[in-house]
Write a structure and sequence with these properties.
The complex is a heterodimer of chains A (about 290) and B (about 90). Chain A is mostly helical and about 290 residues long. Helices cover about 75% and strands about 5% of the residues of chain A. Chain A has 12 helices and 2 strands; from the N terminus they run αββααααααααααα. The chains are: A mainly alpha (about 290), B mainly alpha (about 90). Chain A: It is a multi-pass membrane protein.
């Protein structure tokens, strides 16, 4: 094959490479170094080999947090992706409604994560919060501080409220890029609403959905701030996800070695799952 | 430049040097044989040389973790399996 690349272009990539090196690669290398050592105060390190990895791999606490995180990511993907598609399909394409809907959809995304957590912490309280008080009035004993099921419900609803907009905006961007000619052709063929969605809109949204699923998966798998503010990982450990557990080990217990080993395993899980998502969805797209 | 905060050890330095040398090797390979040699292997989707290196390294990481979790801390056999796996990936994927 002939050489088609302009190698001078690599110099243009150099600043990004340096940025990534300092923000990601060097910290990651440091974490690998920490993961094979025991750390004491005053920067004293002692070789521990694979001890921390074995400890984490055999830890029931890690398995439980990983399980909770996978269930959480599955639930929010199962809710946010279909809901985002439905909302995007029903948003107006012309007129004054477009900017109104876009601004309303963008609002939750603009709120800082810890503020979202605080909003839902207050919202869910049954003495002063609208959600908690309304559920109490309906006769439902709602208490996210003491009941694990209620804590999960609150964290999931909060995430859906916060992030469905991202899926909506991405899907909407895919939908508005479809030329009118496609819809006219479908109308001439007498295509049903479902057929239009299945054979015109969904294929056109495929790429943006790939991005949406990847972003939402990675973000939900790394979720920390919102559940930490609302439930603090409780009641018990019922909403302690991997990142919350990691921070407890690293900063709470100051066990940097096990925390670093856990970070590496956590990173490898995200890398594998993201690669599987990306490969499956891009190949599905290519086959079409 | 003081890099003591990174807590370097000889084994981790060797590990990263190996990865770095692999990347340089891939760049040299690409220079002499441009295009990444895309092909469809046993996974039934197109992979380039870079994809195959990624799959090999990721697989090697999981082989080592599985060995640690299921067998024990002696990782030489895990390394041997990883090399065989990587050869297999570059040959068949």
């Amino acid at each position: 094959m002939d050489k088609t690349w302009n190698n001078k272009a690599w110099f243009m990539v150099l600043p990004v490479l340096l940025l990534v090196a300092f923000s990601a690669v060097i910290p990651l290398m440091t974490v690998v170094n920490y993961s094979v050592q025991d750390t004491f105060g005053n920067n004293q390190f002692f070789w521990a080999g694979t001890e921390w990895y074995e400890e984490i791999l055999h830890s029931d606490r890690f398995h439980a947090a990983l399980g909770r995180n996978l269930v959480f990511s599955f639930i929010i993907l199962a809710i946010e992706v279909p809901l985002g598609i439905v909302i995007a399909l029903n948003m107006p394409r012309r007129g004054w409604g477009v900017p109104v809907c876009l601004v309303l959809m963008a609002l939750p995304l603009l709120i800082p994560w810890n503020v979202v957590g605080t909003i839902w912490q207050v919202f869910g309280r049954n003495d002063i919060g609208l959600l908690g008080h309304t559920l109490e009035s309906l006769g439902i004993k709602y208490n996210y501080v003491q009941n694990p099921l209620h804590a999960w419900f609150t964290v999931i609803i909060m995430d859906v409220w916060h992030w469905t907009s991202l899926v909506v905006l991405l899907c909407y961007a895919g939908l508005v890029s479809i030329p009118d000619a496609f819809y006219q052709a479908a109308k001439i063929d007498g295509a049903s609403r479902w057929a239009v969605f299945r054979y015109i809109q969904l294929p056109k949204m495929n790429r943006v959905l790939l991005i949406a699923v990847l972003l939402r998966f990675m973000d939900s798998f790394m979720i920390y701030t919102e559940p930490f503010v609302v439930t603090g990982g409780g009641p018990g450990n019922s909403t302690t996800f991997l990142s919350i557990d990691l921070v407890k080990i690293a900063i709470g217990q100051f066990d940097l070695g096990p925390a670093a080993a856990m970070s590496i395993i956590y990173f490898l899980i995200i890398l594998l799952l993201s690669w599987i998502f990306y490969t499956v969805m891009t190949n599905y797209d290519a086959e079409r | 430049m003081d890099l003591s905060w990174m807590a370097w050890t000889v084994p981790t330095a060797l590990f990263f040097m190996t990865i770095f040398l692999l990347l340089i090797g891939m760049a040299v390979w690409e220079y002499f044989s441009p295009g990444g040699n895309p092909r469809i292997g046993i996974l039934r989707f197109e992979t380039t040389r870079g994809d195959r290196l990624f799959v090999s390294l990721l697989g090697a990481a999981y082989i080592h973790l599985a060995w640690l979790g299921l067998v024990g801390p002696n990782l030489w056999w895990a390394l041997a399996i990883s090399v065989v796996y990587a050869v297999g990936v570059f040959r068949f994927v």
